[in-house]
Automatic annotation (TrEMBL):
NCBIfam families to which the protein is assigned, alphabetical: allantoinase
Species, as recorded: Micromonospora carbonacea
Name of one Pfam family that matches: Amidohydro_1
Record-given protein name: allantoinase
Classification via Gene3D superfamilies: Metal-dependent hydrolases
Keywords linked to the UniProt accession: Hydrolase, Metal-binding, Purine metabolism, Zinc
GO molecular function: allantoinase activity; cobalt ion binding; zinc ion binding
GO CC annotation: cytoplasm
Quaternary structure, from the entry: Homotetramer.
Length: 438
C-alpha cells in the first residue's frame, strides 16, 4: 500500500508506551503502525530520528473570545498559537465572547466567526447562566460538548454565576458533561487595591475551592450527573474529590500548567501577568498537586488560555485587585509542563496521557489524543531535549503578555500535523467539531 505520509521516530509515544516506530497516514487517518525501519511506500517519508513523535494535544479549556472581544483574541491567532504549541484540537469556552454561548443563536454566531479561520480543530462548550435552562437541550442537540458554569463572579457581566440550586436544576435538565469553575463566593474576600501578590492570594483562599467542590459534589450526587472541576489549584479539595469518586459520583478534575510550574514565592509584587483565578499557590501545594496528578487523582492538564488587552492587566499600576485574571499559555503549555515533569522524573508518555488522551476522553473524542490506527493523524514532532528562552515576540496569540517571558524551558515543537497535513500558518485547515448528542 502507498501512504500519503510516513513519520518515523525513535521516540514515538504510543498508547502502550514510548518506542521506535513508523506511523503511516492515509486520507488524514493513521492507517498503520510499523517498526522504525519498516519499508513503507509514501509520498512523503519524514524521519525525525531522536526527535519525539507525540499525539496532537487536546486542550479543552481555551478562551478564544471571538466574536465580541476579538481585540482580546480570535480564532485565527489562538489556533495558530495552539498549533505552534503542539495542540491540534481545542474546545472553546462560552465566555468571554459576546454574545456568550448560552443559546443556539449565539453558538451559530461563534461558528460563523470561526469558520475558515482555524488552524486546528475546534469544538465548543455551552454555558449555564440564570435564565437559560430552557436553552440547554437545544444547545446539546446543536453539538456543544457540555456546559460551563461559574459558582463565583466570572469577571464579565454577560456570564453571571449560578447558585447551588440552579446548578442542580441544570444538571437534571440535560444529559451532558458539566464543567464548573469551583470557587465559593462566600469564601472569596474582596481584595483592596494592592500590588502585593500575597494580598491577592489571601483574597481567594484554599477554602474557597474546597467549599465549592463540596457544592458541586452534592449537586452531582443528587442529580446523578457527570461533572468536571475546572483548573484545580488547591490540594485542599483533593480529599473531597477522592471521597466523592469512592462513592460513585461521576467526577473528573483538571489542573493547568501555571499551577504545576509557577509558585507564589516567585511572583514579584506588581507582576500582574501572573494573576489568574484561582491563584497560583505555594511550593508545598504545588508538590502535592504533582503527586495527585501522578497517582491519577487529577485527570488531565489543560491551558485555561485566557488572554485580554494588555492594558487590562494593569501593568502600569501593578494592582492585582484591578487586573484581569487570566494567563495566555496555549502555545507554551507543552514545554512548560514537560520542563517540570522531566525534572520530577516523569516521561513523555505521562505528558501525552495528561495533555492528549485525557482531555480527548473527557469530551468524548476517541479519534483524538493518541497515535492509534483509525484515529486522526494529528501528530507533533517534539524535540524533548532542546531548550529555548521564552521571547514574547515569538508567540502567536494576539497579545504576547506572559508570566513565562525570559524563562528557559525544555522541549521545542518542531512540526505539527493536522490529519496528516503540516500546519504552517498559511492555510487554515481546522474543522469545527460537533459533539454527538445522546
Amino acid at each position: 500500500m502507498s501512504y500519503d505520509l510516513v513519520v518515523r521516530s525513535r521516540r514515538a509515544v504510543l498508547p502502550d508506551g514510548q518506542r521506535p516506530a513508523a506511523v503511516a497516514v492515509a486520507a488524514g487517518r493513521i492507517a498503520a503502525l510499523a517498526g522504525y525501519d519498516a519499508p513503507l511506500d509514501a509520498v512523503v517519508d519524514e524521519d525525525l530520528g531522536d526527535v519525539a513523535l507525540l499525539p496532537g494535544l487536546v486542550d479543552t479549556h481555551v478562551h478564544v473570545n471571538e466574536p465580541g472581544r476579538t481585540e482580546w483574541e480570535g480564532f485565527a491567532s489562538a489556533t495558530r498559537a495552539a498549533a505552534a504549541g503542539g495542540v491540534t484540537t481545542l474546545v472553546d469556552m462560552p465566555l468571554n465572547s459576546v454574545p456568550p454561548t448560552v443559546t443556539v443563536a449565539a453558538l451559530e454566531a461563534k461558528r460563523a466567526a470561526a469558520r475558515g479561520r482555524c488552524h486546528v480543530d475546534v469544538g465548543f462548550w455551552g454555558g449555564v447562566v440564570p435564565g437559560n435552562l430552557g436553552d440547554l437541550v437545544a444547545l446539546r442537540r446543536a453539538g456543544v460538548f457540555g456546559f460551563k458554569a461559574f459558582l463565583v463572579d466570572s469577571g464579565v457581566p454577560e456570564f453571571p454565576p449560578v447558585d447551588a440550586g440552579l446548578l442542580e436544576r441544570a444538571l437534571a435538565t440535560v444529559d451532558a458533561l458539566f464543567v464548573v469553575h469551583a470557587e465559593d463566593p462566600g469564601s472569596v474576600r474582596g481584595s483592596p487595591p494592592s500590588p502585593r501578590y500575597a494580598d491577592f492570594v489571601a483574597s481567594r483562599p484554599p477554602e474557597a475551592e474546597r467549599s465549592a467542590v463540596a457544592t458541586v459534589v452534592a449537586a452531582a450526587r443528587r442529580a446523578d450527573a457527570r461533572v468536571h472541576v475546572l483548573h484545580l489549584s488547591s490540594v485542599a479539595a483533593l480529599a473531597e474529590l477522592a471521597a466523592a469518586r469512592a462513592d460513585g459520583v461521576r467526577l473528573t478534575v483538571e489542573t493547568c500548567p501555571h499551577y504545576l510550574a509557577l509558585t507564589a514565592e516567585q511572583v514579584p509584587d506588581g507582576a500582574t501577568e501572573f494573576k489568574c483565578c484561582p491563584p497560583i499557590r505555594d511550593r508545598d501545594n504545588q508538590d502535592r498537586l504533582w503527586a495527585a496528578l501522578a497517582d491519577g487523582a487529577v485527570d488531565c492538564v489543560v491551558s485555561d488560555h485566557s488572554p485580554c488587552l494588555p492594558e487590562l492587566k494593569r501593568a502600569d499600576t501593578g494592582d492585582f485587585a484591578a487586573a484581569w485574571g487570566g494567563i495566555a499559555s496555549v502555545q507554551l503549555s507543552l514545554p512548560v509542563v514537560w520542563t517540570e515533569a522531566r525534572r520530577r522524573g516523569h516521561g513523555l508518555a505521562d505528558v501525552a496521557r495528561w495533555m492528549a488522551a485525557g482531555p480527548a476522553d473527557l469530551v468524548g473524542l476517541p479519534g483524538k489524543g493518541r497515535i492509534a490506527v483509525g484515529g486522526d493523524a494529528d501528530l507533533v514532532a517534539f524535540d524533548a531535549d532542546a531548550g529555548f528562552r521564552v521571547e514574547p515576540g515569538l508567540l502567536h496569540h494576539r497579545h504576547p503578555v506572559t508570566p513565562y517571558a525570559g524563562q528557559r524551558l525544555t522541549g521545542v515543537v518542531r512540526a505539527t500535523w493536522l490529519r496528516g497535513e503540516p500546519v504552517t500558518g498559511d492555510a487554515p485547515r481546522g474543522r469545527l467539531l460537533r459533539a454527538d448528542a445522546p
